[in-house]
Structure formats: structure tokens, C-alpha cells
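Worked example 4.2. Below are the chains of a multi-component assembly; read each line carefully before continuing.
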Amino acid sequence: MTEAQKARLAMRAGEWRGPTLFQVPGYVQANLVVLPKTDAYDFLVYCQRNPRPCPLIDVTDPGDPEPRLSAPGADLRTDLPRYAVYRNGVRCEDAHDIRDLWQDDSVGFLLGSSMTFDDALERAGVPKSKEVWVLDTHLQTVPSGKFRGPMVVTMRWMTPAQAVIACQLTGRFPFNHGAPIHLGDPAAIGVDLRRPLYGEPVQEIPEGVTPVFWACGVTPQRIALLTRPDLMITHAPGHAFVTDIKADQFCIP
Amino acid sequence: MTEAQKARLAMRAGEWRGPTLFQVPGYVQANLVVLPKTDAYDFLVYCQRNPRPCPLIDVTDPGDPEPRLSAPGADLRTDLPRYAVYRNGVRCEDAHDIRDLWQDDSVGFLLGSSMTFDDALERAGVPKSKEVWVLDTHLQTVPSGKFRGPMVVTMRWMTPAQAVIACQLTGRFPFNHGAPIHLGDPAAIGVDLRRPLYGEPVQEIPEGVTPVFWACGVTPQRIALLTRPDLMITHAPGHAFVTDIKADQFCIP
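Applying the procedure described above to all two chains together yields the following C-alpha cells:
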């Protein structure tokens, strides 16, 4: 049994309810979005039009909770450590199991997460950031139907030399947000470091480091706040789905 | 006006009805598939599950013939040199204009074409193949709804040194089929060189060269033969849509 399978079984058994950040290194982690079939077409087109924040790794058949391409045998209703439930665009309860909420027409979307390349960066000589911030921007995504709104980004501190390595290396992971979308001045993309969505507020950028920004899979969650689908389920931030795909593989499938 | 825009206007005016292979270098060329909205969801998922043969560059809104991301102002009904019309999975008439066939619920899909990287290969020291063959394989694609069937590939002859360059270089074009899916023995992927779909039949592989194979955007056309949609329109083989996207750009959009 692989480390990815072991992790998922521990989550299914309720023994693992914490974050997946920096856990199960070497395996592609994915953000989860569950929508009814009626919303799925527009969302698919939205992902196609915005591959940087929404790189699709797997789309399940309606009603089928098994991600057959990325983790055969897994169950998207039980195999994540923590879920966030949105009703009419408002985040309501969190859950550790969504079997009660899964419908006959539920479609599960798995989107590559930037958590995936943190391990590859470390092997390339770029130490893990102590913190990974998640921030709103003023960059608009390309709309599809009712799905529209600004892009969310992750931010890491790096020295300029590390940033150069990161541009080369993460470009090789197109299914995990790819290369940075910005580096340097946060204000240029409308980022306010004092108001992160996740992470500690930052008053000042430390000397000698450059903020480096990647498109973030939290974007569709923010979009949900604006488009108010009746029911939308996602992973809880930082609590991603661990696939069987090796992060160093160049193509999926 | 760019060379891409000039080319499309010449096609719209009926002055350009020939192939686009090796024409308008530097611009991403795309395969076209037009389907009714009712088939579009399964086809979108099919493309997501098979990104090597079906790398989606642009999906139009239902009824709208303008590819807003890849060629704003263009018209998919008139701006290709030649179209192939399939009825119930059978290739019927060819056309130079599909305004009469375009419906209120028509959706245009543009899929990156391997023609795009031929120019980049030449700049990297790999001369253009005199011929590019299109061939059936026994590799099965991942199904979605009624869309299922074997993958079609393109084949180019290269020296081993050129093949090494090609693997590195085309991997940088994930929206144009990316790296090769195979090199060497054609039989290993079920290819019969004596029976190409396009190109002259080959009796013997010349000495000193290796066949190199890429997933091909003709795959969805072959799938149409098997799944028999009422009406499906594609570009005629070799007569692709010329987008405004520069082939050397790393990301779309």
C-alpha cells in the first residue's frame, strides 16, 4: 500500500482530520469542488478558461464518488480530512464525511494544488516557506456562465535566486498551477498583505526576500461566495485530497 | 494587422482554401470541433480526461461563433480554409463556410495542434519533416459518456539526437499535445505504417531515423465516426484555425 493510500484510509477512518500541507510528500494533492450536474458544464468551461487557478486533474461521472483517473478505489465523500459546506454561497458547517450530502447528480472536480510542488522546490534547494499565505487579488478571471470573479493567489517568500529557481521548476507542473503569475510588489496585483484569507497578517516584507505569487485553487471557493450555488462542497483550506499521482510525473494521466 | 489576422481574413474572403500546415509560423494553430450543447458536457469531460490528444485552448459560449480568448473578433463559421461535416458519424460534404450549419446551441471547441511546434523544432535545429503522417493506434482513450475510442497520432522521422531535442522542446507546449507519447517501434502502439489516415503509405523505416509519435487532434474526429453525433463539424485535416496566440507563449491565456 502506498503512502497516499494509507493517508486516505486514515482519513476515511476518521483518524486523520488535520491539514495535508507538507504531508505525504511526492504525491499530487488536489483541491475538491463538488457541484450538481446542472452547474457542472459552466464550471468545466470556467476551469478551461482559467487553467492557472483551476487546473483540472479529474472529473467524476455524475453520482460516482470515485476519482477513477487520479485515485482508483478512493471515495471523495470520505477520503478527505475535512470538508467545507457552502449553502447559497455562504460557508456553513464543516464536515469530515459528506455521504449524507452527496446526490445522484453530484460531480466531483479535483484541481491540482500548489502544495504539490513545495516538496519539489525543497529538493531543488529552495527551503519550504514557514508559512504559505492565501490572498485576494484584483486580477479578474475569465467568466463562464455565472462563474466569475477575482483570482486568489498563494504567496511564498523567496530570495531572488530562489525565485529564479522557482520559475523554472514550477513551470514544469502545469497541473499544479504552473509558474508564478507574479513576483515582487503585491500592490501591482491588488494584494493587501495585511488582510490575508489564510496566514498571519504581514505588516512589512522582510529584507532580502521577494514575494512570489501563484494562482490558487481557493479561487473557485471565492467564486462560490459570489455566485451562490444552492449547495457546493469543497475541501477545507489546507485539507486537500491526496491522489495516487506522483508529483514528478510530467503528464496526467 | 498581424499575419494571423491577415490569414483569417483571406480565409473568410474565400481567397485561402488550402492547408495551413507550415503556414503562418509562430502562431498556435487549433483543431476545430463543433457540437450541439447537448453533447458539449461529455465532450468537455472527454477532453479533460485526454489532454494529450485533446488539449483545449478555447470553448465558445453556446451559439457564439467568436473564440474570445484565442482570437477576439474572429468567426469560427467563416475563418477556416476548409471544414469537414459529419452526419451520424459519417463524413459527408466539405465546406468553406458553415454559417448555414451553425445553430443557436452550437459550441465551438478549439484544440491545440501539433502543427504549432514544427516551427519551434526548426528553430531548435530539427528540420521540418517532409511529411507528417496521421495514424491509428490501439491506445484507448479514457471514455466520457458516449465519447470513447482509440487515439490517433502524428508521426515524424527524426535522428535519435533530434528525437532527444524534440522530447525536451515539445514538452514545453502542453496546449499543443506536449511531449511525444511514443518513439521507436510503431507496432508497440498498434501503428501500421502501411495504412496511414493521411500521408503516403510507408513500407520500410529509412535507416538512421526513429519514428516519433505525438497524440493528435484528429482523435475526436475518429471518435465521431464511432459515436455518431447527429451533426459534428470539424476543420478538414491539415486546414486548421490560426489563433492570435504566439506559439512561444508558455501559458494560455
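Take a moment to check your reading of the output against the notes. Chain B touches chain A through 22 residues (CB under 8 Å). The CA atoms of residues 146 and 227 of chain B lie 6 Å apart.
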